[in-house]
Amino acid sequence: MDYFKLNNGVKVPALGFGTYQMPASITEENVAKAISLGYRSIDTAQNYGNEAEVGAAVNNSDVPRDQLFITSKTQTSGYRSTLRGIDESLQRAGLDYFDLMIIHWPTIDNLSTYRALEDAYKEGKLRAIGVSNFNSKKVQKLIDHAEIKPMVDQIETHVYWQQNKMHDFLDKNDILHESWAPLGEGMSPVLGEPEIVKIAADHQKSTAQVILRFLTQQHIMVIPKSTNPKHIAENLDVFDFELTNNEINIIKNLDQGHSGVNWPSSMGQEAY
């Protein structure tokens, strides 16, 4: 496993296990499998409805808690409701702290919502805090007005939308770029791109492995999701090879600069 370091010094695995749209009934089993294979970062959210099952897998694991990095996301707006939501998430998961809590979506009052994360961070309930789906203007407002700089921005990032503009902004401000939908959420033909197929064959890897390695080599944290045991194992097995500069440039040229889902125009390329 490769690790990145957040701007508060906390180390985070470069690759984690996502649980978006994973039914609660199968979450504990899949998270437990992921941990047993070597995943040390697990991503959940209040909105996913599976925090309890993620927590159960963590608490029933033989891996010490301090070796795992557990992320959740708020689904609230405002100071009091967000503080309350963090406590409820910890209770549901049966955890004393989250390693990372992020605002899932921009809210009516981002500053007050984020202030709740700051206070929970100061109390030791969170080891790191950040945001998700925030464009550069929204992140800059937090940098300008919040007490604690965000440590992560989790945004849609994949081969067809590489978020170069936003990546440069986050890198400049020492905020880790985290990708959701690193493999395109299965909604695009990216896994069959001929250039990636050829690169994968040259390295004796799958196209998914090449894409995940491409992103992590750009200093982007990824959280692929799968319930297929073969894919869960394969997605983790990406740190025993490196793409050449030429291969990276080939993949960079596949960037189409747009989302894989039907975002409103306010969340399009120019907004970031």
From TrEMBL:
The record marks 73 as: Lowers pKa of active site Tyr. It comes from Candidatus Companilactobacillus pullicola. Signal peptide: none annotated. The lineage of its organism: Bacteria, Bacillati, Bacillota, Bacilli, Lactobacillales. Residues 15-255 form the NADP-dependent oxidoreductase domain. One of its GO terms (molecular function) is oxidoreductase activity, acting on the CH-OH group of donors, NAD or NADP as acceptor. It comes from the Bacteria. This is Aldo/keto reductase. Belongs to the aldo/keto reductase family. Substrate binds at residue 104. Coiled coil: none annotated. Keywords: NADP, Oxidoreductase.
